[in-house]
Write a structure and sequence with these properties.
The structure holds 2 protein chains of 2 kinds. By secondary structure, chain A is mainly β. Chain A is about 5% helix and about 40% strand. In chain B, about 0% of the residues lie in helices and about 45% in strands. In chain B, about 35% of the residues are buried. Classes of the chains: A mainly beta, B mainly beta.
Chain lengths: ~180, ~170
């Protein structure tokens, strides 16, 4: 006998159901027509007074996110003027008292990503980091963290979270970088 | 000789300006600065057979779809993706089972094109209201279900459908 399955738009969690919920179509508006929002940040380290300009282990805090937002796409652009062999991780950190909070997941979006050549709107939300799969697009940020690190949160912690880069090379010349985030 | 004007200046395509007074034309807001909207429908199939169908999201006949993509995990199946009537409990009959995608292998894919895959919608039609994409002569003012239909064999796994669209009125 044929079965009719329903996605999470009709049946709660969307897992293996074969009938709609009693009240269908009452799903989260954030995944059913919510406006797409945009954040953009730029960080230019070419004028850094440090030596080297971006030392090994340096943190670059890029954007303030919220645990309940749903990232749809994350793009990195950089001209390719970083020192040869430069690579970095893109991850999440707590804000802390003075933008100095500890790591949540250092490489959830990118792990040892080479940036010594030009990157033109490289999509980094999925595929470059650790543990996220294409089907995870559009999940809430705290849910993404739980995918990469199961059990981190029991529910949405309703906190701000920083998008941050960690430098993995010995440093050298700085460069310009732009990060663009689309989300609901 | 007048300049040619797009559909942002005239209801006619390739209108040539003649300098003659004509009624003021109001561009549909849905193609002139409307907010871009997002839909995300996810399902984890425990066992999906040729005779089954899976209702992913609902869409209005006057929604203007710009981009529609599918992502999946590891699963062995190919699907049709099309339009079905909603019915009284999302149990309506099929309208066009492979309107968007026709027998496409979706094993472990990352945002593959779903809107134009079957060839019924072209790139030039992106952003038209759905009823125009369907070739209807007027808007029926109803909603449809977008449904995945198994083309062959059986399948187990996750499917994620994402739609980027605008809607008249904001």
């Amino acid at each position: 006998m044929a079965s009719r399955f329903f996605s999470d738009h009709f049946a709660g969690d969307g897992v293996g159901r074969n009938a709609p919920d009693d009240v269908p179509d009452q799903n989260d508006v954030a995944v059913d027509g919510r406006f797409i929002r945009y954040k953009r940040c730029r960080l230019d380290t070419t004028t850094s007074t440090k030596s080297p300009a971006v030392p090994l282990g340096e943190q670059l805090r890029l954007l303030v996110l919220h645990s309940s937002m749903r990232p749809v796409a994350l793009y990195l652009s950089t001209p390719g003027n970083f020192e040869a062999t430069m690579d970095f991780d893109i991850g999440l950190r707590n804000p802390g008292q003075r933008n100095d909070g500890g790591v949540i997941d250092q490489s959830i979006f990118a792990n040892n990503l080479a940036v010594d050549t030009e990157r033109s709107r490289l999509e980094t939300l999925i595929g470059s980091g650790s543990g996220l799969a294409p089907i995870d697009r559009g999940l809430q940020l705290w849910e993404l963290v739980n995918v990469a690190q199961p059990g981190m949160y029991e529910a949405d912690p309703l906190i701000n979270i920083h998008l941050a880069v960690k430098i993995n090379a010995t440093g050298g010349a700085g460069d310009d970088l732009v990060m663009e985030l689309y989300y609901t | 000789m007048g300049d040619f004007l797009s559909d942002h200046f005239s209801p006619e395509l390739a209108f040539e300006e003649t300098g003659v007074d004509r009624p003021r034309y109001t561009v549909p807001q849905a193609v002139n600065g409307a907010h871009l909207r997002y839909k995300r429908g996810y399902v984890d199939l425990a066992g999906f057979f040729t005779v089954d169908d899976v209702r992913l999201v609902s869409i209005r006949s006057n929604d203007r779809i710009h981009r529609m993509v599918i992502s999946t995990g590891p699963l062995s199946m190919s699907i049709d993706l099309g339009l079905w009537q909603q019915g009284v409990a999302h149990d309506g009959p099929v309208l066009d089972a492979d309107f968007f995608m026709s027998s496409v292998d979706i094993n472990n894919v990352n945002q593959i094109e779903a809107l134009t895959e079957a060839g019924n919608v072209t790139d030039e039609q992106r952003g038209l209201p759905l009823w125009e994409m369907m070739g209807l002569t007027r808007d029926p003012r109803i909603s449809y279900d977008i449904v995945a239909d198994q083309a062959v064999s059986t399948g187990i796994g996750d499917i994620l459908l994402e739609i980027f669209f605008t809607r008249q009125g904001g």
